[in-house]
Design a protein that fits this description.
four-stranded parallel beta sheet; about 450 residues; alpha/beta; about 40% helix; four-stranded antiparallel beta sheet; binds zinc ion; single chain; 14 strands; 16 helices; Four Helix Bundle (Hemerythrin (Met), subunit A); Rossmann fold
């Protein structure tokens, strides 16, 4: 298996630290607003990474943090606190904001069939770990104190900026990072920020340095090493994290432990929104719920993501999503041709071999999808075809098999559903409610959507 490692800027053979076990840390969401489909893109990509490793027989320990403590809106430890900003906007406490959007995020994971990570630690549950880590970095002589906090002295780490090919000279000119006059070097960053004098923050904690809150990079070093050890296999994040967040994480690892914490650093590109479809008419970016409200299957979005390479990103539009949904449905329909339980049939080994090669080539998912269609259009018998595609679905995560169970709704229930539809057209609500009850008592749920209704078995 080969992955593109940002550390070396090349595709590298993957060699895990332990023979059959892989530790993966993914920078998770900041829970101050609804995650949009651009945010979720990354998590589909990393879910594919985890599933691919599982497919090849590795046990994975996947950690994804929940950032529920306020990042500042700028990279340079200045600007507004996102959590406090969200709190003011919605009239909820920061704690309520965090809970609300964490739940939305978890819901999105389920809808996109993203495996639940092994651990999802919250930053606010790990304040002590962060303080302990800062103490270590301090004891090793990498910190200094100024009026608003404890900072990491980047000049003490000779390789600072190497990871991102940063031009420190340029930074010094203040081109990218705002200058805080008290900082020794422009790239120095806060490990611990002091609460403003005479102002009570909603989130603040006692520390050896005074009342305050952690800087925005320390949580990832603290939580990744707590759960995966001081050295672990893979660290993932968006490519926007390379210059600051991950560069600083690497510096913190060096400051605390004397070495880089992760062997492979993998980064995803982003989705762009095609042409005029930049956002909804209301202004925001589409969320998974928006797609469901537009009557899309959320897994159609997953299919669309699989059609892009994680390092290239993709262009999103509702038209592209529709094409993806049609393709997904055509794939699901392949089971119609099969007459027997596909699990009893053999998987085609030649195609499987091709599949393994493609996922092993830095997760070449667009090629994997092309392979799926090559299998679909091949002259294998329908059962072997379906068994092979279902095997690939362990990585694709399109739930191709589950859909069968959902679609096999008995004739009797479908008939009741039709009667109820008619009652609704005639605005006979008493009758439509009565039929809903009957359907429910037979073990099925009716979901009313804008122009249609869906019937699902009660799980
Ligand atoms: Zn992070």
């Amino acid at each position: 298996m080969k992955f593109y490692n940002t550390l070396t800027r090349e595709k590298q053979e993957f060699k895990p630290i332990k023979e059959n076990e892989v530790g993966i840390y993914s920078c998770g969401p900041t829970v101050y607003s609804s995650p949009h489909i651009g945010n979720m893109y990354a998590y589909v990509c990393w879910d594919v990474l985890v599933r691919s490793l599982n497919y090849l027989g590795y046990k994975t320990n996947w950690v994804m943090n929940i950032t529920d403590v306020g990042h500042l809106t700028s990279d340079a430890d200045s600007g507004e606190d996102k959590m406090e900003k969200g709190s003011k906007k919605e009239g909820l406490s920061v704690w309520e904001i965090a809970k609300k959007y964490e739940n939305e995020f978890l819901e999105n994971l389920k809808e996109l069939n993203i495996k639940t990570p092994w651990k999802m630690p919250r930053a606010t549950d790990h304040i002590n770990e962060q303080i302990e880590l800062i103490k270590k970095i301090e004891a090793n002589g990498f910190t200094y104190k100024i009026s608003d906090g404890i900072y990491f002295d980047t000049s003490k780490f000779a390789d600072y900026g190497k990871f991102a090919n940063l031009n420190l000279e340029k930074l010094r000119e203040g081109a990218r990072v705002e200058i805080n006059e008290e900082k020794k070097n422009p790239a120095d960053f806060a490990l611990w920020k002091f609460s403003p004098i005479n102002e009570k923050r909603q989130m603040e904690w006692e520390s050896p340095w005074g009342m305050g809150f952690p800087g925005w990079h320390i949580e990832c070093t603290a939580m990744s090493t707590k759960y995966l050890g001081e050295t672990f296999d893979i660290h993932t994040g968006g490519e926007d994290h390379i210059n600051v967040h991950h560069t600083n994480e690497i510096a913190q690892g060096f400051g605390a432990f004397g070495h880089n914490t992760a062997h492979y650093w993998m980064h995803n590109a982003f989705i762009t929104f095609a042409g005029s479809k930049i956002s909804k008419s209301s202004g925001g970016l589409y969320t998974v719920k928006d797609l469901i409200d537009l009557d899309f299957d959320p897994l159609a979005y997953r299919y669309l993501v699989l059609g892009s390479h994680y390092r290239k990103g993709m262009e999103f539009s509702l038209e592209n999503l529709k094409v993806a949904e049609n393709a997904l449905n055509r794939l699901r329909n392949l089971r119609v041709e099969t007459h027997h339980d596909a699990s009893l049939h053999k998987i085609n080994q030649a195609f499987k071999q091709e599949f393994v090669e493609k996922i092993g080539d830095d997760l070449a998912m667009p090629e994997v999808l092309a392979l799926v269609w090559k299998v679909a259009k091949s002259d294998l018998n329908p059962e072997e075809k379906w068994a092979t595609i279902l095997d690939f679905d362990k990585v694709l995560g399109l739930n191709l098999n589950k859909e069968i169970a959902e679609e096999e709704i008995p004739e009797e229930i479908l008939k009741l559903g039709e009667e109820r539809k008619e009652a609704r057209v005639n605005k006979n609500w008493t009758e439509s409610d009565r039929l809903r009850e009957i359907i429910k008592n037979k073990g099925y749920l009716v979901e009313d959507l804008e122009n249609t209704c869906k019937i699902k078995p009660i799980k």
